[in-house]
Amino acid sequence: MPRLRTEAFGSGNLAWIGTAHGLSNARTETLDISAFTAGTHYPDGYIRSGQPVAKVAGLLVPYDATEGTVTGAGILAGHVLFDQPVIGTADFPVPLYDHGRVKAALVPGTFVKPAAAAKLSATTIVYI
Prior knowledge:
Elements: E1 27-31, H1 38-41, E2 46-47, E3 52-56, E4 59-62, E5 76-80, E6 84-85, E7 92-97, E8 99-102, E9 124-127
Parallel strand pairs: 8-9
Antiparallel strand pairs: 1-7, 2-6, 3-4, 3-5, 5-7
């Protein structure tokens, strides 16, 4: 018998996106699921659309918003574009929104637009 699973698809809440620019150019990156916490980052089994991430050692990890942190996880790589189901413990590919306009107040969680230019050096995102 094949391994079957039921999966629901949806776009998630995309209200954080401020423009269509960049949507069709989101690049694929690999998310390091071991760096995310189930109760904090995906309590319902999904990495949320808009999740801010950083790129460390070639993998996406949660973005460290601490203003003084401007290396590693402290450099914003972008936002996960669509809700991504977490299945198991293996790393998986996700679409990364790394240029365009983002409505900072609508990004999930307690995201605040970075003040330090060094924290934004890996993106061309304009926060509105």
